[in-house]
Amino acid sequence: MRHFRGEFLLAQRVTIKSIAHDLGISHMTVSRALSGHPNVNEETREAVLQHAQKLGYVRSAAAAAMRGEGTRIIGLLLPNIVNEFYARYANALALACDARDHQLIIHLTNDDHVLEHRALLRLQQVQADAVVYVPAPRPRGSEEIRGSGMRLIQLLRHRQETCSTQFVSLNDAVAIGDAVRHLAHGGHRNIGYIGGSEDLSSGRERLHAFRKGLIQAGLEERTDAVHTGSPTFETGRRAVGALLADEAIDAVICGGFEISNGALSGCMESTRYRGGHFSLIGYGNPSYYRWIGDGIATVDIPVEELVNGAMELLADQHPDAPTHNKVVQARFVVPGRNIGH
Amino acid sequence: MRHFRGEFLLAQRVTIKSIAHDLGISHMTVSRALSGHPNVNEETREAVLQHAQKLGYVRSAAAAAMRGEGTRIIGLLLPNIVNEFYARYANALALACDARDHQLIIHLTNDDHVLEHRALLRLQQVQADAVVYVPAPRPRGSEEIRGSGMRLIQLLRHRQETCSTQFVSLNDAVAIGDAVRHLAHGGHRNIGYIGGSEDLSSGRERLHAFRKGLIQAGLEERTDAVHTGSPTFETGRRAVGALLADEAIDAVICGGFEISNGALSGCMESTRYRGGHFSLIGYGNPSYYRWIGDGIATVDIPVEELVNGAMELLADQHPDAPTHNKVVQARFVVPGRNIGH
DNA sequence: GTGAAAGCGCTAACAG
DNA sequence: CTGTTAGCGCTTTCAC
Fold first, then answer.
1. Which string of b and e fits B225-247 if b means at least 16 CB within 10 Å?
2. What is the nearest CA distance from A214 to chain B, expressed in angstroms?
3. pLDDT tens digits, residue range A119-135?
4. Which nucleotide across the nucleic acid strands is nearest to A14, CA versus C1'?
């Protein structure tokens, strides 16, 4: 009995060549047998398959990549993955990728442009087929992104890049307007706002929607009640603290996932909020929002649709047609209220 | 002026060879220049660096992998990533990996052995350096895992594999015992339990700890109040529904993250729970547990320590020493109560 | 200080 | 039906 490579020795990698050597045939025959090519003798094929199976042969993705086949790797850049919205997004995207036999490499940017850049570099190195990313706030003059073969798909925010990008974005202007109207109907006159900084497309757009909503509701903007900053938990927490301390303010609308969580966290520690003398409109719809008090009214973000949008763009065969972008609608939702039209 | 490859044409990949060609030198010189080898003329090096910079040269990870350098890729297999515990784990691991210039490929298994197997195969193909995984329940006779060059690190649960594995596990027996004692002190006499099935090491161990706790507290086990099943949200939700319907039962302890969330979800819809006539001990410590009612007592899982444990194992130079495993302690925590000893 | 050759795993394009 | 060659991008080894 011959001693096959890897069976008794410290297992070297099993390759088509090692299999060919073991079986005393050419590595091309092994290649053909394994890839289902018709021109292989049935017995030979059987022997190869069996041997490969026994030794646990695994095709090298590196070799495939080097030959110019795709890597079937998708990159995903998110600020973090603890926030339930991002977690849901990552979860759904991972499942979708898996179903299409792709792999997902996740990088967390913490909304930091430097980390984002590093992540993109690493993804270029592994030749990811595409990258879905929530663009981090970009300081003026900072380096642009180079696509270099990867398809770039921006999520939620959009940023002008030199290389071609597509985007899946969110239209939340209507929902934010509805939120203002809802508060106005409820008798609120002095509504605050906390949102991402105006460096961000989303920051600009949401603030604009808020202001437009105020005007339509016939309310004045209280400039001291509008807080913008980096789109973080701390921003929300701190800003809501200030708003809660101002007796004149009686409600606040959040314009961002992390900001919303931070603001809620600040509220939960406030007797004023728990006493019901202050209203918070959240952003996003984590499962637990409805368990807090009587539930929290929110600008509802349809995660699945955002994932589907990205997957459709990825499936699209014409990566160069920048017209094929996706826009998804957010919706204002009040707990316990039937969904009308 | 010469037309450099990629500058005007449809950008082909920039390689050391293409750069060498552009500059009319050997690709070896380019390689040396880029990798900081001393034996390169200063001017040549400068020219190479500049040209590489301009064209956006990126080193091919595939070529590196094929030469047998590591891939610096870590695989992570989790049931899902929406559950806040897993999300926190993934988040922390991603950050730790990034800090060490590694990349994280995430696969979701949904606790399904088939999906787990597929994911491991894909990770072998890309030659991941290591895989951290929460072993899925394994049906008898199902295929074993082959490590094939990857280091395998089991998380939370441990499963006997043919190939060598290490683990970072959790000792929650004490905490579960404390939970029973706490309920007993609070006057509860009929305590239910919901946990993962006994196919899982964690399922067995937690149930055992619960039973031991009952005995130590001088309580009888009510067999009809012990529910085990797949470690899912639905299991928790359904089981807690049954327990809430049984007036004789006045408390329940959860033995699993998803189960705990499901049970809580069931409780939140129950007037009995909201009326305060039923106690729930959660498993894990999502941020929002403390915002629900007066907060929820839980078996607290130290995520950071679990991540650190895995990172230490990964950093370890002796992958063959199976003695180097990590065990992390869970702790029973009651909201609003000072942490004593 | 520079270059040519070989090889990592795999397949397309040719021979036989 | 099977085998040989060449090349994907890179570095190590050995010339010069």
1. bbbbbbbbbebbbbbbeebbeee
2. 31
3. 999 999 999 999 999 99
4. C9
